[in-house]
Fold:
Amino acid sequence: MAAVYSGISLKLKSKTTSWEDKLKLAHFAWISHQCFLPNKEQVLLDWARQSLVTFYKKKLELREDIVERLWIYIDNILHSRKLQNFLKNGKTINLQISLAKIINERIAEFSLAGSQRNICAILSCCQGILSMPALSVIYTAKQELMVALLSQLCWLACRQPEGAVVAQLFEVIHLALGHYLLIQKQQVNPKRAFGEVIGHLFQPCLVLRHLLSVGTWTQADQGQLRQTLSRDIRTQIEALLRGGAFQPELLSSYKEELLEQQQGDMKMGAVKNLLTPAGTVIAKLVDTGYCEPSLHATVVANSVALLYKLFLDSYFKEGNQLLCFHVLPKLFGCLRISHLQEEQMKAPSTSDLTTELLVVEQLLTLVVNNNIYNIAADRIRHGEVQFHFYRRLAELLINHSQASLPAWFRCLKILISLNHLILEPDLDDLVASAWIDAEVTEFRTKKAQEGLINTLFQTYAKLRQVPRLFEEVLGVICQPAAEELRQPVLTSGPSTVICECLLELPPNQILDTWSLILEKFQSVVLPHLRSDTDMALKSLSLSLLLHCIMFNMRSLDSNTPLPVIRRMQSTMERMLRELVQPLLDLVLDPQGTELKLWLQKVCDSALLLSCTWIQVDTMLSLNCSQYHSVAGAPTGVALEISDLPSLLPGVETKHWKKIEKLTAQFDSLGRYCLEQLYLQKMKRTLMHPGFNSEEALQILRYDAAYVLRSGKESLTRRTVACWDGHVGTMSALTYPVAHWHLIVSNITILLSYFCPDDVSYLASVLLRSLPMSKAQEDSADEEPYITLGKISKALLHSPLFPEMQSLHSAFLMCINAKCASILCSGTQSDKDLLRQQLPWLFEKDHTVVAHWETRFAKVGPEGVEPRGEVAPNLLSLVESDFPIELDAEQLESIMELLEVISTLQLDSLLAPYHVHCFLLLLSMTITKLGSSCSFSLSVKFLMKSYRLLGYLQRGKSARSVLKIMYVSDIFEIILTSLFKTSSRLVLEMDDPSWLEFLQVIGIFLEQLLQMLIQIKLSVVLNFGKIIAFLSSCKPHTEVASGKRLESQNSLGRQLLLVSLTKLCQVLGPFVKERKQQHEATDVLPELLQQAILQTGTVLRLCSERGALGLYLPSTVISSATTLLEADMSQHSRDRGAESSQMTAKMLFSHTALYQSIYSQILSELPTLAGNIQSFQAALQFLALFFLAPELHPKKDSVFSSLFHSMRKVLADPDIPVQVIQDIEPHLGTLLTQMLEVGSTEDFRMVMQYILQGLEVRNIWTADLQAVLSAITLIKLLLNCPLNGEKATLFWLACPQIITALTLQNREACQEQSLLLTIVGPILDVLASLLRRGEEIIHNPHHVSLAFSILLTVPLDHLKPSEYGSIFPRIHSVLFSILQCHPKIMLRAIPSFLNSFNRLVFSVMHEGRQKDKGSTDDLTVVLECARLVERMYSHIATKAEEFTVFSPFMVAQYVTEAQKVTLYPAVKELLQEGIYLILDLCIERDIHFLRVSLQPGVRDIFKELYNDYVKYHKAKHEGEKRYTV
Structure:
């Protein structure tokens, strides 16, 4: 065969062989083992390379497809496993430089011409070469080739290719950059490295980095480039630039260029030989020829901050601050923003400005973070060179204001933080452009503006020059300007900032600022205020500033120096006399001006200052005893109340009437402030000694009425506006919100003085403004500011709301009225007739109280009265055709109102309101629902209504309802209505919503019956009427007739069954209790017997398979349980009294029913396990059935049947483990009852099945459910009170159980997936066995088996959830051994310590500080470490047993601790435990440890012992001093 293939080399070189054949031969030669060529790999690679080189030198003509296949051939060789194995075996293969050159030439061709021919194959070849060190040497050995390759690759990427090329190209760039960085680190000539980077790589790398930064290739439509690869390449580019342009060896060159040139003492000869790296970098950066003009400015801007950062990273250290600064102006000069002052410069676009301002911000941030600017050093040593640069920058920013850009504000903020003098000369322009005249609307810009203003005020506060700052602010405000175009001076952001600043200022600075504003008012505003709208607006701006200062200054108190108090008093008097009163005079005497805006703003200003002045005056009077209020008695009021407070001193009472009329014209700040004035007056009146006088009460009522009445009209508009809570932003749109906020905030004061009509109005506004629907509520919660809905919702959920009984009742009546109006709108008959039939739908608040109080007054002392016409009316309406029918929309509206009612506390209502609410809810439940109402909506509505009725009847006034209706009446009305409703509903019997509704109605009916028994009011009469009604109702008559019933009547039968069940459930215990007290009459037992008969009849039909569908519903099972319980109590009572023939017949007739349900439950028990409620009811029935031997089938053992059903449940693979854990307590209860009655043989059967389940073959055959069911049964048995022969049998089998558990555990631990499902339960059962067998297990071998189980359980490589589950279980087993078997443990201490040390080492391993990953799982480890600490403390209590082993425990701890670095929290817990073991060590043990431990471990022990002595031992010895 060798002879056949030996001519391949000649054929490849032959000119006669076609190129297709040559390629086939070459491919065959490469892959075939039968082709023998000397140095075959090198020959084939050289042939392909030479062919391509010849072609590209124009010496050979080839078709394009042949060229492409040659490249693919080389690529296949380079990526073949054969070549990799060839190189791994130490063999070499040589790539010629010519191959690298043609690769470089092709990539250059692609980047210049844009052609992508053969690009994928060539890039893949390049990747193959660079991926293998043995091949990449062709580039690394000849640095020029690598530089050229990298440069062309970057330029190619900058052309932004698309498609599959992108990922491949960037992988190659990533590899090439990695190789070049290694070469760069080995470069010994810094100038050469600088030249290579700046000359060839600088520009393409900057462009490429920019394109990567803006995510050019990672957009949604071009997701070819991974984020991690993009980030890695950017990092590599930064490292390349730092290693080339900013080498440590170039520091002296930078110093010579930047520092000595600045000093101007260089000689011309030195200039020629100088390497100017900074100038070269800047020149290359600003060169316009390396990228498109549209991209150039952005690339330069994004590169400036990077270059400055790299420069600082390389050269910044103490002493180099000036050098680092001098680079800054040069780089800043590259930005177009630096040339804005030049006239010929075209203004850049907003996007370009944003980019460049962000860069300026980054530059300034780097200056701040690196402490480059030292004010003193710059002024003393460097002639303020830095200051002048920052000053020019500040002028540039202020002269070209960009208040719409957040970065502009942030740049100014940094300049202020550098040195406030930088902006001091332009402070007025700064205040104007950045605050007063700035039009800021966007949220991010507002936050930036807020940050600037905050820095400005904080800076001047530290300098104690806040008055100076305010002087500039006042100057800007008072400058001539179009005030209407200005935004409010104090929006929420600036206002919050100023408030925080003012709280820190001393009183004198506050007073200085205050005086400045007063002077500005008097000199600039007041003289020109009349009829000048512009001045009126300035007046309001100054008033807002003054209000902010007065409201947010620190209050004076009795410890304040007296001169300050006197100055404050003088300023207050001056303000009242020279500012507030003149403004009020202007308002009272406008002299015929018709300028509404002027009048509104002057009025706003005057009332804002009046309100502020009176509140500050009151606050000072309360807090400072030396301050004497100038608020005197009002003029123009009656003498007998002349000492009560006035609105404002010096203003006659009659003038306030005129002001009220003026403010009523505008929904503005003035009206709000006038409300505040009246509210403040109320507060001062309440603090007055005579506040209880009749005159004072009249004034308080008038003032409260005004506050409410003032904004009445505005609240009718239902605004959706939001308010930020600052008076400066109040407008006509937000006034209703502010007004409502004022009322609700002070509701506890105002409510006592509202008349009933005002309280009703308040309740109506509260209801109207509440967000009803879920969408409204969500939108209200998302809104960050105050809205009407938010205020009302907060009041409704306030804990104080139920305490405001008048408002609470009025609000409830308001909801009731709205519900009643919806009900009335659905009436199908004459409203006058409806008024006679359902009068409570038309009752108003006062009517309700009067009507029902009159009714209750007629009731005698026994609380009994003729029940009147309410019940008969309702019953006749329900039985006939109810006159009200609701459609879906009306029903939705009522449900929204019911949702509101559910938030109220209905259990504390007064009797009249309680009765009215009950009748209204009852009317809703019996209302007819239209065809447009869906079934699910109807059921939901009924559920909500009956829940509220139940909640209402748990209240203190529940008995008041029984004064107008009997319980039997309510029972009959409700069920009659429900029977009718159920006949119209089309729902499945097992529909979850219907089953939930049955549960709700059952709870309500039970509550009614329990109430009847509690009050003992006509018990026999009511129960008799209820049973008579249930026996005559339509569903019961249909059942009794034995007809084949239609499916739609099944819901009615279920309702009837629930009603009868609740009747038996309540009446049965009551009859039993009466009999025990010897009070029973013959009537009640007979009634109970009738109820049992009826229930059995209905239950028999409901439990038929055809009526139920597939499975028994929970209602049937619960009813059967209740019936059986009542039947058994009757049977035992009658049996004791020699039961009659009728009773015997009854029991016999029910036996078949019980047996049928019993057999159904047994077959369906695994299915019922999915529903805890049904399962619990089923187990209760089975327990009762088991206790009634008369019912047991004669053929089968009930014990066996029940036990096998339980096993089916436990062994069912479809039932999740969590469900099994949930139903375990219920199974345990049933098993306990079974074992109490069952025989020893029954118990033997149980033990036999347990041992069969624990056989190891089950786990071999993957029958895990058999194993799990056996383990669960052991757990259940351990919780049962076993005694006598059964206990003996169990503990005799205990050794066999432990041995079986050991084998099961050994097999399960080999599979990670069985750790939680099998191993965890085994450990639980083992711990329980050891605890319960404390005095029973005596054989040490059985306990030692437990140690073998613990040592088998893996603790490594577990998920946090698995670790957190297994660790505590192992700890629990160890603790059981330690506490319950001390004698056996004494012989097995080494085994115990081995098991415990596994826990300690495991916690150390899991609690070590990891290089990567989060600390989210640390909580689990901390819990485990806490258990270890606890076990150490238990061991320490057994001092005698463990003293000998204590030094070895310490040695093992420190040996392991030396290997890891623990998280501090874990280390602290473990050390607290090991300190307790050190307490057991004597001096000889400590010496032994110091000598025997290895050197590294010895250091750890030394540190541990020092901490032990310092913290633990000293603490406990200190405690011993106080111990007797």
